[in-house]
Design brief:
Elements: E1 2-6, H1 7-17, E2 22-25, H2 32-43, E3 50-53, H3 57-68, E4 74-78, H4 80-85, H5 87-95, E5 101-106, H6 120-123, E6 131-134, H7 138-152, E7 161-166, E8 174-178, H8 182-188, H9 212-244, E9 252-255, E10 262-267, H10 270-283, E11 288-293, E12 295-297, H11 301-307, E13 312-317, H12 327-336, E14 344-348, H13 358-369, E15 376-378
Parallel strand pairs: 2-3, 2-4, 4-5, 5-7, 6-7, 10-11, 10-13, 13-14, 14-15
Antiparallel strand pairs: 1-8, 6-12, 9-11
Helix pairs in contact: 1-2, 1-7, 3-5, 7-9, 10-13
Length: 383
Amino acid sequence: MIMIDTGDRIAAKAAQMARPEFIAAYPITPQTVIVEKTAEYVEMKELDCEYMRVESEHSAMTAVIGAAATGVRTFTATSSHGLALMHEMLHWASMARLPIVMVNVNRALGPGWNIWADQTDALAQRDTGWIQIYASSCQEIFDAVIQAYRLAEMEEIQLPVMVNYDAFVLSHTSMPVEIPEQAEIDAFLPALQPLWRIDPDDPLTHGNILPQAEYGGMRKDLHMAHMKALESIPAIADEWKSRFGTYHGGLVEEVLCEDAEYVIVAMGAFGAEAKVATQELRRDGIKAGLARVRAFRPFPSEVFRRLSANRTFVVIDRGVSIGAGGGIYTELKSALYGYSTAPVQGFIAGLGGRDVTFVEMAEMVRKTARGEATDVEWWGVQE
């Protein structure tokens, strides 16, 4: 079936087909459409699910944690300040090893108030222990949500997953999406088999006070599960491709990288625009490629180490780690340190939803090639 609709409605459709048994919801622009549509699925008896309307995003995450701890599949969605308000409970969800799936519609943080696309909201949660996936099309939104459940619920993973995509650029833009039959999704994503759950008939204590050594061991286990996810994310994407035909890359989508001298590194909706920029540059005789980051956590360091030989990376960040530079830029430099001397040029662009065209992206590469770019450039920012 082909469904033509916005990213938010596609995300809601994916959530419905994943068959969650509990949804907690609080509205925030531009995510609100997701929780409205999932509520409609429940109301129309198209989804057998307990739907809880809560008083805040903090409560939404607390509610799905409680439900997930009883061994049921859960879903929620948020954006921007809503995600920030969840921060405390994001740590709780990952340390409790709960396979929660949440959609976050990337939106700028205030003040000043801005409802447009900016990835700083999710990048600010990089150390909470959540796996983070970034989509660049409505098709990828659908595929990523279903795949996120499969990943989160794997015995060796057991981690919450956040699926991110850009506000309005994707959340409110309609695209055609291939939707498999429900039976096909059920075969790919069987019913949740929890490894543990709270049960009044079989009581246990969970999340209690720990000695230092045991606490450190839990944090290490969390990290090792992320390392395992580096193998599992591509494997799940490959299986999805074999079943359904659509594919967006595993950890990183690589475009024209085989002979590229300059590789654009971007994330989210920027990836689609960057593909056009690579074609423009190639027409001008500049060997450009694209490495679009799909998985920011865990960060795909080995992919970039493999790509680094005889290349310059041109990183275009739609977010900023204040005092350090772009989030992808700083992660990439850290990943390459001690392994490669490949130059890494950073650009911070599109903050607060400012449009960045393929023409501008191509110019960033040209400026890098001319040796005119400074360490980290702020593109399109008022002086």
